[in-house]
Give the backbone structure.
Amino acid sequence: MPEKTPSSLLVISAHAGDFVWRAGGAIALESARGARPTVVCLTYGERGESAKAWREGRQLDEVKKIRRDEAERAAGILGADIRFLDAGDYPLVESVELIDDLVRIYREVCPSVVLTHTLTDPYNGDHPAAARMALQARILAQAVGYDAPGEALGAPPVFSFEPHQPEMSEFRPEVLLDITPAYDTKVAAMRSLAAQQHMWTYYEDLAQRRGVQLRRNAGPNLGLPHDTRAEAFVRHFPHVTDRLS
Amino acid sequence: MPEKTPSSLLVISAHAGDFVWRAGGAIALESARGARPTVVCLTYGERGESAKAWREGRQLDEVKKIRRDEAERAAGILGADIRFLDAGDYPLVESVELIDDLVRIYREVCPSVVLTHTLTDPYNGDHPAAARMALQARILAQAVGYDAPGEALGAPPVFSFEPHQPEMSEFRPEVLLDITPAYDTKVAAMRSLAAQQHMWTYYEDLAQRRGVQLRRNAGPNLGLPHDTRAEAFVRHFPHVTDRLS
Amino acid sequence: MPEKTPSSLLVISAHAGDFVWRAGGAIALESARGARPTVVCLTYGERGESAKAWREGRQLDEVKKIRRDEAERAAGILGADIRFLDAGDYPLVESVELIDDLVRIYREVCPSVVLTHTLTDPYNGDHPAAARMALQARILAQAVGYDAPGEALGAPPVFSFEPHQPEMSEFRPEVLLDITPAYDTKVAAMRSLAAQQHMWTYYEDLAQRRGVQLRRNAGPNLGLPHDTRAEAFVRHFPHVTDRLS
Amino acid sequence: MPEKTPSSLLVISAHAGDFVWRAGGAIALESARGARPTVVCLTYGERGESAKAWREGRQLDEVKKIRRDEAERAAGILGADIRFLDAGDYPLVESVELIDDLVRIYREVCPSVVLTHTLTDPYNGDHPAAARMALQARILAQAVGYDAPGEALGAPPVFSFEPHQPEMSEFRPEVLLDITPAYDTKVAAMRSLAAQQHMWTYYEDLAQRRGVQLRRNAGPNLGLPHDTRAEAFVRHFPHVTDRLS
Amino acid sequence: MPEKTPSSLLVISAHAGDFVWRAGGAIALESARGARPTVVCLTYGERGESAKAWREGRQLDEVKKIRRDEAERAAGILGADIRFLDAGDYPLVESVELIDDLVRIYREVCPSVVLTHTLTDPYNGDHPAAARMALQARILAQAVGYDAPGEALGAPPVFSFEPHQPEMSEFRPEVLLDITPAYDTKVAAMRSLAAQQHMWTYYEDLAQRRGVQLRRNAGPNLGLPHDTRAEAFVRHFPHVTDRLS
Amino acid sequence: MPEKTPSSLLVISAHAGDFVWRAGGAIALESARGARPTVVCLTYGERGESAKAWREGRQLDEVKKIRRDEAERAAGILGADIRFLDAGDYPLVESVELIDDLVRIYREVCPSVVLTHTLTDPYNGDHPAAARMALQARILAQAVGYDAPGEALGAPPVFSFEPHQPEMSEFRPEVLLDITPAYDTKVAAMRSLAAQQHMWTYYEDLAQRRGVQLRRNAGPNLGLPHDTRAEAFVRHFPHVTDRLS
């Protein structure tokens, strides 16, 4: 069992690749600070996000293996541990058992921050299903009376990372995370997913756009460089702080 | 003209007392850190928030003076500069001139953080009017071409402080500020407003409730004391940060 | 000055005819109970709601007179006092002076209930303008320090009556008022507006539809008759009651 | 089988204690008027809301018994019948069977008013689950063709009682119920839950706050006493009435 | 297996009669243009929408047969194919199996347009359940890796047709479809449902009201006739077009 | 006075450049079809959107002239007439007079389609002010009794074009307009604005992103090319059509 650290990021992802595109910067940033983030993939995205492999005539097990290998490689580059629950995608079906698996991971990892999908995504039903289970498991893990190993959890903040169609998914950026120091690592992780070259460009452009937006909202004195790169998030709970900024 | 400091809080308040009840902790916290916050009262609250004085038969000028003295005393305790624009309340009428006054203050103070009212308050039309002008002036102050002294402003974050009827004013706390170290100062400032004793209790209870809520959202490892006190805020622009928390 | 009564309905209407179609049942119901409702028409609707008269080649003063006479006749049938502020329509422009007129009426009438337009109406800008002024004046009239004759007002409940395009105006019926006992009076008032025959049918159908909806939401035991007629309203403030129903 | 009465309140509660804190005043008010309210607890709250018992090392059955005894005692004080469906909490899982149980209760009790949780509660997934089932069962119970004993139900109004974190649960008070005459009974019921002393204060303060808010929204003539106590509710369906107030 | 046509309308309906009242015009319009729409009834509406048959003492199988016969007759008049999945209503329970049935139909029919219920309907839980499944199945049918016969689907636009209580179901008309040329056919289909005479009037009035609204929103030059009839819809995805109108 | 044509596009823009970036494709598309669109610039954007000129030390009149020349050149490329109301920007102040100017233009141009800004834009107050006036003037122009030359207007559809920060401005694309045939013209118009090179890239990328989104929402049979370019819009009124697509 991994040792608990004060800073521990937990990423709950519906499919094997989601965490790279949408939260790779946040993950690399934390691991560069000495933490060891944990990524949980509820499925391999074997049916819903592996069109290329199916078009090449692969079988289900092959597809899963391809996606698993890719995700492990990318997680390695980002400096994260990765686990696969193999729950089956398209559709990802919510269940008490799967939520229980997540509760156990919460209790084990004791995350200081949780990242997951948005609760709305009209183009992909698995993403909201993952988000609902991530939020439900977090509540359960806080209850002393819930029957799972480990201590009752505190109440870690939860963020939704950016969906592929932000406006259609009611995603209004609430947090712009400066990922500039970790950006090269994110790019390397994205490019390790060799089959999805068209995604590289999209997410590199997005990082730049969110970087411009970050600078535009950064206030008077920050002097941020022109090549600032950012990821956008939405908060699910109030931000606890001792300084307004 | 006050010297610009890297951290400079600007509070734009419709009436003379609002800043004490709703943002006194945030102000005291900043001044305890060595900054000199600026409070701008658009009006004295002479008609809308001075029922006691009118019932005692005071004239308009007297009422204004009472409110001004009180507000100056409270600002002094909180460690803030205070200015009065005497724009007339109930109703506070939006005007190009008043917005221009605010632009000039923005350019002069160059705030790193701005606090103001909510955009919705069905019980008080002056509060949203103040918030609209505060937001409009911030935009204008950022334009190089706007004809006012000083440099074009950066884009400071803006927060709405908590209205008296949060649920009815669509106020969902997004930021819980730990004001515990400054809480005694806030209490002293509130109690210097001798005529409004019933408000003391309300806002002391609120600080406690928001403190409990802060602890409940603070995540696993914080170990916050039981007497934690907090103020709640809503953000108007994305939070720029280099660390999710 | 009319004598204050415990039950006193105040209707604030943008144009001369609005109160008949949209709140005629509520008004007739109150007057049948012995109260004397007050209707305030901010304008005659001389430009925006008098197409027929203009097409007949009338002059402005004639149009106003036609609308005034009609409105007085309808108010008489409904048992209400009526006043005209002649503020000019299309557009109805919000002003401090007009709001002040309303404050004075609030202080004089001391309404137990206020009816006005919705805050949203994409097909008519005068309606939301009237609603905003009605709400603003109500706040001002409550302030002891507001310089107008009479006592500071209590906080009467405010309802928006149904706009012509409910779905497009974000109108979700929150209150269904059974106007069956007063329905014949409302019909008589509507039919006294001889020039607008096409409106009769529309609002008679609407009263029936809202009546069906009322019966469908009336719970298990009410035994309401099939010819129930209703008007729909939206509340602006919490409903104060000593019994849930 | 209890006899149907014209006024019959049905409270559908996720856990054993919820109805006391959140609707105890409404229940006591009805029983003081001679009605016999029915409380249905879907679970005992054995896992999610019994931290103290688990920390003391109790077993599951013991925890359930503790919560059941407490809830029966409190219901007795409030003058209500109580039933336990023992569906298992944390998570409370929606099922056709559990909804069917509720349909049968609806058909038996024939409620004139229904109280339940809110549909949103980011801090507790069981509460929205209970609310969804309460609303679904109400629809089914209205269908002649639904296979359960008793007559097809009318359409009783449904109210959500106040969640623990109103702003975070999108709870905007729509109804403020004056519980002053029943307040002592509610306090007695709360205090019978000896293990949860910290809740007493919170809900006594809340009753006072909602009482102040009630008086502030009560209009001009009501003359309500300073010790007015209230509970807040949200409506799910239009309010059917023959008088605006 | 029906041949795929470039224009192919798919209607996914919770109960046997819904498609006639709410989308009969759209269906008849398409079939008049030479297409062959497909209607899928997830259930017969045997429990929830067959009160009359139950009151007459019919058995479950009889009720189903009555509803099936009626629906087939109406579909015939409208020129549509119809299928029944007999999933059981009140409640209609979402399941992976039922969604899979829909995926297979999507792959077979390859619809150019999809019509279904709204996602909100506080008076009928089966309607949103049908809409959720229709939307979920559409996503799954687009995935190459989903295990069902046929090609991966494109992304057909989806519309919600008008619920019985539009304002309570958050239904704001976004598309007004001119059904005038097909209106007589719709009326004939409605009148073939002999047992539900009260519905005829309601939906004939609605077609007229939506027709008036269509003319009121049709812009300057259209010269639409006074007997224009319309149906209202809401879009789920952006409208793709090469001309703004 | 320009001749009225059946298809006539009216673009109401706060500042001189807005129409190029945000609606240049829609304009060029219409003019390529033989129509002559009309662009109205309420201001030159002389203060708020001319930072470069001010930094170079230009005077107000020079800045206006620069912006006017640029806008005329771009309008020429797009094939549109252009007018300047010179109302003064930052802030653009709403007035009865300016709205009256717009009414007269509506009556003269008799637009079949209107394009303007969004009603929300937290980064620029002039944009919503322009949109509010465009919508208000459209209502007034429809009234026979409004005192301005020309016939009462029909009810042209209104679209908001895409703001610079779509997610922050509550902009959810409802219409994706295929501008591919006119895209080269739009690019030429953008590049004629020589001083704003950084905008070229942003809006070329955006046209591509919206093009991808258009293809992703275009349904099964369209076979759109990979270099599809699009502009996104939001509708203010229901879409009137005789075919769902």
Remarks:
- Strands of chain D lie at 9-13, 38-41, 81-84, 113-116, 158-161, 175-178, 230-235, 239-241.
- The first helix of chain D runs from residue 18 to 32.
- The interface with chain A takes residues 46-48, 50-51, 53-55, 63, 90-91, 93, 122-125, 168 of chain D (CB under 8 Å).
